[in-house]
Target: Beta-eliminating lyase-related protein
Amino acid sequence: MIAGMSDTAGRAEETEETEATEESRRADADREGTVREGTVREGTVREGTVREGTVREGTVREGASPRERRARLRERRLAAHRSARRVLSRPASAASLRERLALLDGAGGLYDLDEPGDLYGDGVVEALEERTAALLGLEAAAFFPTGTMAQQVALRCWAGRTGSPVVALHALGHPEIHERHAFSQVSGLRPVHLSDAPRQPTAEEVRDLDEPFGTLMLELPLREAGFVLPDWEELTAVVEAARERDAVVHFDGARIWESTVRLGRPLEEIAGLADSVYVSFYKSLRGYGGAALAGPRTLVEEAKAWRHRYGGSVFQQFPTVLSALVGLEHELPRLPEYVARARLVAAGLREGFAAAGAPWARVHPEVPHTHEFQVWLAHDADAATEAAVRQTEETGVELFFRPWQPAGPGLAVTEVGVDAAGLEWTAEEVTEAVGAFCARLGGAAGGR
Model:
């Protein structure tokens, strides 16, 4: 759920939505639902055939349902993205298989490829685990196929140590929105909410929670609230409040890699505040997948036992693990640069919407905390997505890759991310592109 929206049961981050009015929300933003990027069906828009200055409308059968029309729009959007000459980001999920395989071209410089392949977590997997633990300044780390599995294992291990299955977390946290209640359904944990406000929880909320809890879980950054982070003083105060209540602290650090700019501290100092930290290797590092749980060696050893029980002891994982090593080597050092450029892009967006007469449009946070942030409009979501796709098809310039989602009556929201592909944009170019987007959106961009 996007901040300000009511919770929708059964929503899953990386699967196609079943509710027609919400079907492309989060799945389309991260994984693009079940229509794979770059696999546009013949008879609609052929991949790579959208030329600058042309529009390929394709066909939508008469009487098509809203769901079918959204699927068609998604296909156009993905085809336009692949042929665009100017973008703010090139999400890994939109790349072809050939492009993704090319990620490993330089892997031989990071690990001896003449070594035997990994078997059930040894070899190159152990090398990644050691590298991750060192980066975070923690004793040990365990590789997991998914973050959902890693966090369930971490929290059930802490529940055994603290004697409490209660986990205090934000109502907008990933486990509450995107994991189908796995904490309670699979792991016997009981989540309690510190807040549902679109911001990080406060130390006061931790101190004043009206029931005991064994673990405090903090998502850094909190995606659904706009990729927001606390400042360093706020973070240390929240952690201290948990310690006062004899709770352990776990960081959902799927995107903690890019949090150093806002927090003004190195990774090891940030991770050192927590008892355990989960990190993702694909969300910001562009790997093929995978996650790690880092913390005390005794916790990690127990986590590996539970990893086996949960089905996470996989025969061979070297492609994913090598892609993670590549991400740590090449993407991790660039993340502060992406954050800086995102702030410039955000400034250009604000100026562009104001100049286009869309005073209600909002960039949130106004100064992004990471290289990703939200943009809000007082407009129909499908119309905004259509305008964004048309802009890309007609000009070859893509401003909004991710689809706009309904966020209340007359409101739409999308997420913007900046990576290496967006580093050449100036604020003036962003402002100009906003004008072109608003021209296609029509006069209703500024109000309902």
Observations:
- The CA atoms of residues 57 and 150 lie 43 Å apart.
